Amino acid sequence: MCERGGGAEKGSRIAWILEDGGAALLRLYLFFWLLLAIFRVLFIAGMAEYLTPEVTAADVWLALTRGMKLSMKTAGALTLFTGGAAFFLTPLSRRAGALWMRLSGGVVLTALSVLFVARFPYYRQFHSGYHQLLFNTLNDDVYALLVSLVQEFYLPARLIAALFLAYALYRILGRVWRGASPFAPRQESAAGRWLRRGLIWAAILFLWRVSWFGGALGWETENGWENAGVTRDTLLNEAILDDGQAILRAYTFHIRLNSGSGPAFTPEELRRLSAKLTGKPPDIDDIDAYLTRRAGGAQIKRPRHIFLLIGESYANWPLLPQYENLPIANGIRSLLARPDSAYCGAFLPNGGNTVSALTGIVTGLADADLYLTTMPEAFAAPYPTASAPLMRRLGYATYFWYAGAATWERIGAFVTAQGYEHFFSRGDIPGGTGNVWGVDDEYLYAAVLDSLRADEDQFMVILNVSNHSPFSVDLAAKGFDREAVRAALPEERRGDEALLRQLGHFWYEDREIAKFIDAARKRFPDSLFLIIGDHADRYNVSRTPGKYERFAIPFIVSGPGVHPGLFIPDAAGSQIDVLPTLTEMIAPEGFTYEALGESLTRTNRRGVNYMLWITHGAIGAADVRPLLPEALGAGMEPAPVDTAAMADYIDAIRGLSWWRAKYGSRLAEPRSEGE
User: Fold this and answer.
1) How high is the mean pLDDT of the chain?
2) Mean pLDDT across the stretch 292-320?
3) Three-state SS string across 336-390, please?
4) What's the CA gap between 550 and 559, in Å, rounded?
5) What are phi and psi of 57, to 5 degrees?
6) What whole-number distance in Å separates Cα of residue 68 and Cα of residue 91?
7) Helix, strand, or coil here: 572?
8) Pair 384, 594: CB distance under 8 Å
9) What are residue 638's DSSP bridge partners?
10) Contact, 306 vs 530, CB < 8 A?
11) Which helix (H) or strand (E) is 191 found in, with range?
């Protein structure tokens, strides 16, 4: 800008605002909008192997067009952040305007480039764009996480690639902002100049409006991330959201999780739901009264030692018939072949990560948008549904073994506060080698075996970590036959070395569980074993797994008195049903206990978690109403489901878990803070 005073300077500033500045804003907006569209196209092309075979060109086009509409919001926000301030600064000082554009543009383009490059491995890991688990890492072991990112996902190389991309885009951005207006002819009348200026600002105002509503003219037809999934394909639905929209989604869910606002149920609604859940009258003001149960009588002889093994990422899909020739689950398959084992495959984890499994098993409460390991209420006293006090009442000393650090998610303090008498972690396991998350499974189980006592009835929860990125177990030294597994894979996946390494860690985890069970049986033949995964949804042979194959975990029970028909024929459940199942197996008739879940040996035919419901013959999304049952496998039909009853069950489990964890047992309007 010229530094002359007077009317000429003022007129020049106004002319820049009306003409060059407006045109620069339009160019900047189009740059961000097209960049997000190009990123979307590149992501879909680069991840095309994850598209389902049923995807058509029309589906891809729908995803692209819907995504471009949504990205108008993101482009508008980025333009406002970078160009808005520069637009007002430049007439005052070109230097200040240029400086802001360089700084803000550099920050924005670096962030966009890093998110774009990281999006590929993120989707391969979670089959999702950025979601709330991204922010859950704030409570995680940051050092271990960084090591995993470096070793498993090659963080330095990806970061360098992202920075090169950001620099190239930065150079283009400078040209876009400084470029001459493409709308200005060489010779123009005054009337034509004012018409052109009017058209520029009319375009800006129009784009502002449609950007505000995500490509729509009003809220009635507004597009948002909440209703973005319009195709039949998971990858395309996730590609619709640009990285800015995905981060907004993740942050929104994270805030909801930490707000403690919970499901919007009144005490009256919870009484109604509790009555339907338990068969008790709808006029009880005490949640614990609703959850009080009486055992029907022991179904097996009381064992001296009970082991609840929670396998890191131990998914159910390797146990399915279509994968019986894949030699990674032979240990548990051999266990299931025994006449003293029972298995339920229609089973869900409490949530999508290990901490959800931890809270489900330890407290007996479902995932209900509360982070229990950080809540003061969870440290005040054990919940009545908690597993440790229940097992202590049944005469067992309670132990919790974790292969990682006691500080992870405050696990040591949390399980102790919830009633476990003995807690052991990485520092208590001698000679153990492993990765940043904890010791290898074999050292964990060796330490557990050394702690077993013949003069004490023991209940032990054991949580391993080896089947976790960075997947650093020396598989060759452990005897993993990589080529045998490679030969059993579909041809298109035989060259995927990362998948082979992941499957090798599943194999190692499976083998060590089986070895531990064999060793413990030899010392104490009356031992009872319960085996579950903490969660699934990390890796699959199929790039497009259905809900059941992607999310289900196994629930296995093995020991004297157990038989394949122990579970009812159409049993289904989730992790909150593990302890009620165990209680009904061993407790004397009339023993009273409190539980949100039910026993798979007597009544339970349904399960629910943070996002899904399941029965023996169907699965579906819990937050889609009306509920839409889906089959458990390709080519199958979903079994009939009473969707109204299932919806009430979902609401009851979530609502009661949230209220009991947050407000206690009394069903009354909660007092506000400070009362």
Assistant:
1) 86
2) 97
3) HCCCCEEEECCEECCCCCHHHHHHHHHHCCCCCCCCHHHCHHHHHCCCCCCHHHH
4) 29
5) -60, -35
6) 32
7) strand
8) yes
9) none
10) yes
11) helix 190-212
pLDDT at 183: 45
HEC string for 24-62: HHHHHHHHHHHHHHHHHHHHHHHCHHHCCCCCCHHHHHH
Which H or E run includes 612? strand 612-614
- CATH T-level assignment (fold) for domain 267-278+305-663: Alkaline Phosphatase, subunit A (3.40.720)
Phi and psi angles of residue 317, each rounded to the nearest 5 degrees, phi first = -60, -35
Q: The pTM is what?
A: 0.75
Side-chain-facing half-sphere of 573: CA atoms under 13 Å = 27
Task: Round to whole Å and give the CA distance between 225 and 223.
Answer: 7
Give the three-class secondary structure for 20. helix
Structure tokens at 493: 């996946």
Q: Given this model, what pLDDT does residue 28 score?
A: 86
CA–CA gap between residue 240 and residue 61 (Å, rounded): 11
Under the banding of pLDDT at 50, 70 and 90, the label for residue 673 is very low
C-beta of residue 145 within 8 angstroms of C-beta of residue 409? no
How far is residue 301 from each of residues 304, 392, 520, 584, measured CA to CA in Å?
10, 18, 18, 12
Short-list 234, 219, 309, 284, CA closest to 54: 234
d(CA 234, CA 228) in angstroms, rounded, equals 11
The angle at the Cα of 443, spanning 438 to 445, to the nearest 5 degrees, equals 105
- CA torsion 430-434-439-445 (nearest 10°) is -80
Q: What is the pLDDT of residues 12-31, one digit of tens each?
A: 555 555 556 667 788 888 89
Each domain of the chain, given as residue ranges in start order, spans 6-126+156-178+208-245, 267-278+305-663
